[in-house]
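Thread amino acids onto this structure.
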């Protein structure tokens, strides 16, 4: 009778252990499906994509390590570097820097419309570099920290590229690194929040934000119209926030913005489906654990009522659960422990 009861208990315990040790398995990560692949092919140009869910760590990578002209997306790691230096007390954001003729550079920005000799605080230059993608502000900030120090920062952060023959070059994966650094920085620092706020209020919003309306997007664009280059790198603050980098080359300037918006829209829809699956999966896991806990209670009551060795068995059962909690033991380990130990009763 005791052996029969033991066999029944062991079988029930193994089933119960399987339920308890069921671990979280994320829903399928995003993939380059037919719709996304067709959109990339129809663009007629070169495209790099990096997506990463900051909660589940699910990723989507396409040409993610390809070297691309960074254009003004390089302003993201530079301003991040300056603000990190300020956080460490190495830079005073209220220090004023003087705009000199050597700093002049055309293209995007508002400082070029002001007089040479005008001074700006470092904080103002950071804002102009992000919100208005100001080229002169970028040059002044880079001069402040030094070319060597900035290049070293890019490398130490894990970026594969940086400056190749003086040309700002990054991959989609490189930009993803700095988006994640900016997100982490914003979670622990007011200066990080300040940077994300600037990124959320840029004047350039025809790309990722256009494809994902009604969702907060903190992003930095970079474009060189004469070379048909347009990039966008953003933090998307969905219920499960994620990074998204889309870099393009060889697509007509106006068309490239629409392509980025369409890609962002499709990836966001896939993101919503994936996160919904994760939520459903988590719900099932919680239900399974509750069911397993209830089964455990029923099993202990059953042992108390039927088995004269109930006290020893209950002790072993509790020990097994304690082992599982401490060492996160697998099913085989716990089951083996119980079977071996119960033979000693």
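Threaded sequence (345 positions):
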């Amino acid at each position: 009778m005791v052996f029969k009861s033991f066999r029944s208990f062991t079988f029930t315990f193994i089933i119960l252990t399987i339920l308890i040790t069921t671990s979280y398995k994320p829903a399928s990560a995003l993939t380059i499906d037919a719709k996304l692949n067709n959109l990339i092919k129809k663009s007629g140009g070169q495209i790099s994509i990096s997506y990463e869910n900051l909660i589940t760590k699910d990723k989507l990578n396409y040409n993610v390590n390809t070297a691309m002209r960074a254009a003004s997306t390089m302003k993201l790691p530079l301003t991040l570097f300056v603000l990190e230096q300020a956080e460490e007390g190495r830079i005073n954001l209220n220090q004023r820097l003087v705009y000199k003729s050597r700093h002049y550079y055309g293209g995007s920005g508002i400082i070029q419309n002001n007089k040479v000799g005008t001074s700006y605080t470092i904080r103002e230059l950071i804002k102009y570099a992000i919100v208005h993608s100001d080229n002169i502000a970028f040059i002044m900030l880079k001069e402040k920290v030094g070319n060597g120090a900035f290049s070293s920062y890019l490398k130490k952060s894990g970026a594969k590229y940086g400056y190749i023959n003086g040309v700002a070059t990054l991959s989609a994966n490189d930009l993803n690194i700095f988006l994640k650094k900016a997100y982490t920085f914003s979670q622990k620092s007011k200066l990080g929040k300040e940077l994300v706020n600037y990124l959320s209020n840029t004047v350039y919003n025809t790309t990722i934000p256009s494809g994902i309306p009604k969702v907060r997007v903190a992003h930095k664009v970079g474009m060189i119209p004469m070379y048909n280059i347009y990039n966008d790198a953003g933090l998307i603050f969905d219920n499960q926030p994620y990074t998204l980098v889309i870099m393009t080359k060889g697509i007509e300037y106006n068309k490239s913005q629409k392509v980025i918006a369409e890609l962002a829209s499709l990836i966001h829809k896939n993101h919503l489906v994936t996160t919904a699956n994760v939520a459903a999966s988590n719900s099932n896991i919680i239900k399974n654990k509750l069911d397993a806990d209830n089964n455990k209670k029923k099993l202990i009551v059953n042992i108390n009522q039927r088995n004269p060795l109930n006290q020893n068995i209950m002790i072993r059962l509790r020990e097994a659960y304690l082992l599982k909690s401490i060492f996160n033991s697998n099913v085989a380990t716990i089951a083996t422990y119980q079977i071996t130990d119960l033979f000693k009763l």
